[in-house]
Amino acid sequence: MSASPSDPLAATLPPLARPLILGSTSRYRHALLQRLGVPFVTDSPHVDETALPGEQPVDMALRLARAKAHAVAERHPQAVVIGSDQVADLHGLALGKPGTHERAVAQLQQMSGQTVVFQTALCVVCGATGFEQAEVAAVRVVFRSLGREEIERYLIAEQPYDCAGSAKSEGMGIALLERIDNDDPTALVGLPLIRTCRMLRAAGLTIP
């Protein structure tokens, strides 16, 4: 079935069983999804990412991934929509994107010598068919003991202020780590592609 004529994104996509939309403005997720070689467009979900009172990091990540997917699917019901969210979990404390240098310094000082679980949630939905699957890929990351000067040098060099946990494992941030334990390597960057492929196939898309 083709996309609805009223869907403004439909004209930008080649024919598919259904159009695919990434419900995210993250350049990291965009770059990851491009690896699959499947045509897609992006649309901002405009979801409030404030944590709920007493909400655990894993629950927050899953709630936001679902909210993002559904927000975009409501506007484009014929499309298959991907929503994703990542929350860094430091012993039950949720660490989001720092946004500023000062907050990034504070986050890395908190994580120094600690094990942080990056909870990366994924949700795939299609309004027209009622399809929905959601899952969390947990990545355990052990940080080295970090000195203030080391933290400052890293942040000045890479400026990862739009990354949960203030470090880019795909870049220089890998030097801050002792170990990464996961079953879906791209999850730490922001979109677990192994799970994404499985869900998109279940939704009716051909991958690859």
Number of strands: 7
Number of domains: 1
* Beta fraction: 15-25%
Which CATH C-level class is it? Alpha Beta
Summarize model confidence as the mean pLDDT: 91
Broad shape: elongated
Q: Can you tell me the CATH architecture?
A: Alpha-Beta Complex
Termini separation comes to 20 Å
Gyration radius, in Å:
18 Å
In the CATH hierarchy, the third-tier topology is known as: Maf protein
Structural class: alpha/beta
List the helices and strands and how they pair.
Elements: E1 20-22, H1 27-34, E2 41-42, H2 57-75, E3 80-90, E4 93-95, H3 101-111, E5 115-126, E6 131-143, H4 148-158, E7 177-181, H5 193-202
Parallel strand pairs: 1-2, 1-3
Antiparallel strand pairs: 3-4, 3-5, 5-6, 6-7
Helix pairs in contact: 3-4
